[in-house]
């Protein structure tokens, strides 16, 4: 075989090996043979590669040269495939794109001062320094603030982050892990607690829709806007104040609401037994008590017909009033009958048949006063107040009995 043909075969073998190596993605450092510089320029090698002693040579940054290899080929493809930045350059003309310049120190195209590479690495875009300045590329936003992007010509925080204190902070949900208060503060009043989770500050609670923390109400009648603020059990926010729920009552000593238990209901302690009047008037001694685990009337209280516990004195007054009423009705009937008899006698006398009526007056005074005394004696009324009431009724209210002429 002629020497020229042998050299051609060797060159082809090396080219095939390089092609196979590149196809497999291997980065084995294999020198690339050549016949002349044009062979090197026709390959995927830097534009300044040249042929020397049968191999392609690639310039180094120290102005020396070394044998080109598959690694140089791969690097060059990565830097030049669709991009203009970071490609090798020797002159400004090699970097003729917006904001581009040749960095002679590293022999690569880079960006001018106050410019940053575009996202596609095909140009340089001008830096911006605030959210107020319009943008065209996300790298303009990232140049002054991390976790940002450009949308609708405006820099914004990327999804899952929010802007506060001139930074984009990761958005941590309620009760989620956190490291800084800013990660939690997208919820008003939320902080990063001592256990490194987001939560409401002390003496506050999260509102119903999870947008802010509200002041917690600790006792009955505290102001509120939502029921979650009423932190004691069985309570609710009614008319902007914390109250016990329907069919529950509040015990001040226990600072909580208890279900209402009526006469005859099972109980454990006195505060469970409930009668509305006790909580309207707030007496020092309640009318109901828990006796043998059953709600009953307390000492000095009795059960009335409405199943309400009332004081015995009130019950006695009521019974006395009823007795007086019965006596009044009875005596009124007697007086009316007596009055009718007197009227009949008067009519007979006027008709010529005069019959003297029985003398009703006595040493006690008029007939009316005599009747009052008879009433008090009959009904067992001893209280001066009750006798006075009867006197007003019989003397002033009852019709007068006409005297005999």
From TrEMBL:
The chain crosses the membrane at residues 318-338. Keywords: Membrane, Signal, Transmembrane, Transmembrane helix. The lineage of its organism: Eukaryota, Metazoa, Ecdysozoa, Arthropoda, Hexapoda. It comes from Acromyrmex echinatior (Panamanian leafcutter ant). Residues 211-250, 255-309 form the EB domain. Pfam families: EB. It comes from the Eukaryota. This is EB domain-containing protein. Residues 1-25 form the signal peptide.
